[in-house]
User: What shape does this take?
Amino acid sequence: MTLSPVFINFTYIISAILFIYGLKMLGHPDTARRGNLLSAIGMFIAIVVTLFAQEIIRFEYIIGAMLAGAIIGALAARLVAMTSMPEMVALFNGSGGAASLLVGWAVLYDELLPSAGSAADGVLGTAGLAAGASTFTLITVILSILIGGVTASGSVIAYAKLAEKMTSAAIVFSGQRIVNSLILLGIVVSAVMFTMDPAIGSTWFWVLLGLSLLLGVMAVIPIGGADMPVVISLLNSYSGLAACAAGFAIENNLLIVAGSTVGAAGIILTNIMCKAMNRSLANVLFSGFGAVKQASKVEGEVKPINVDDAYLILESASSVVFVPGYGMAVAQAQHVVRELGELLEKNGCEVNFAIHPVAGRMPGHMNVLLAEANVPYEQLVEMDDINPRLPNTDVAIVIGANDVVNPAAREDENSPIYGMPIINVDHARTVFVLKRSMGSGFSGVDNPLFFGENTRMLFGDAKQSISGLVAAFKS
Amino acid sequence: MEAVFLSFILMLSIFLGFELISKVPATLHTPLMSGANAISGITVLGALIAAGQDNAAAATWLGATAVMFATINVVGGYMVTDRMLGMFKKKDKGGAA
Assistant: This one.
């Protein structure tokens, strides 16, 4: 049985509405889960009606591939630890990009080889062109291979960096811009040559494919660990744009609508991340971190504190703000932190969590971790809301965060992070900094906070230190 | 004309995307991103057609591989988003792990 193209396209409109409503509902905590479900239903409907399109006459490959993909996807989604979420999202992005690349590639066969299958004017209408591909279609195919390729290889590198399978620091070498410009030039040349003489197995096609993948690698390696939230949201945007380009290649409205909406959403998130670091997108993309200026050397004495003394201070505190960073994720300390928060509340203390927009390795990373540990989301306070309250806060506890609480961003014009909005923990009456040992943060910048008059350093593994505090409260 | 028509749709959708996302609380950035990511798996529709057509074997294989990758993106993306959102709780419901 096949469905008419008109019917299928009308169904696509319903899917598009569900996607749009779903995305909108994802913007509010109360409706987010239903929003996600709506958008999943939209996807399901679209897939089901597409299976009845008249172009599809063989199902054996489809069934196998869908089963394999569904099993891999479901297992990955089920098993991934919340701390590894950034890597997971990077890989999902990458598989979306790879799929768009392959769709573009497959369309080439449709365009350049006459075949029985495309004789009818079908719903995803690449048909009727078999005699020779139009330049427009070729350009869109090239775009989906380019964007899809960059997304796929870039995501793999982002994954490797986040999972620490390779150095998470920025990789910068002299002549990098020249190399990148040559790659871009090579892409343009091979794209033009291929469009002028399109053929299956053309050398120019392989050059184009190879260079696209290479560009993705080159685009991500110069971006260092603390900038990863920007990369992830940017790759998210690319995966949408890749789907959009594939939509042009197969002339499918739904791919264009869904893809470009996701693309725009990703750009907005990227922009939010850049603003939170006071840097332009170009600056994040093209320069490694902090190679330019030498920050003023910080002098001073560090005042360490042990768990028992910290307990005594906390016990008499009436307001405490936790400031988590990537270190909390590494130490897997979110559950003990929640426990300590609850004990403090029982003790009559007001407890909040201050979340910097770029804390962690992806947008909203800390929020997800704390939600996993059952911290109610009303207690998660954004930077701009917590800062005015910090001068009246008894204790600010910094757990594995560094750059986002570094007062040098406010005061030291020579600091590479100067101008970045931070959480002003140094304004609190007392600051505890939980840290494994002395050493600078991800950006390699010295932090004057550690030498502050009201700062006490609680050295050691964050999880153990917090557990110690919890035990002290319980006894 | 088809190109013009598709470009119109593109333009409108981009503006729509910007309008939809402009005000999202930071708490929801991760689920929003992975939820949007799942939607970008829509490319699966193109993959299905490529894999199901009676065409060169190479095209079928490319299509089938694309179906697999896109399905990972779709299924994984929606499930992981749901899992995350399931953890966001309000004060009264929270507490007991």
The radius of gyration of chain A is 26 Å. Residues 81-286 of chain A form one domain. The mean pLDDT of chain A is 85.
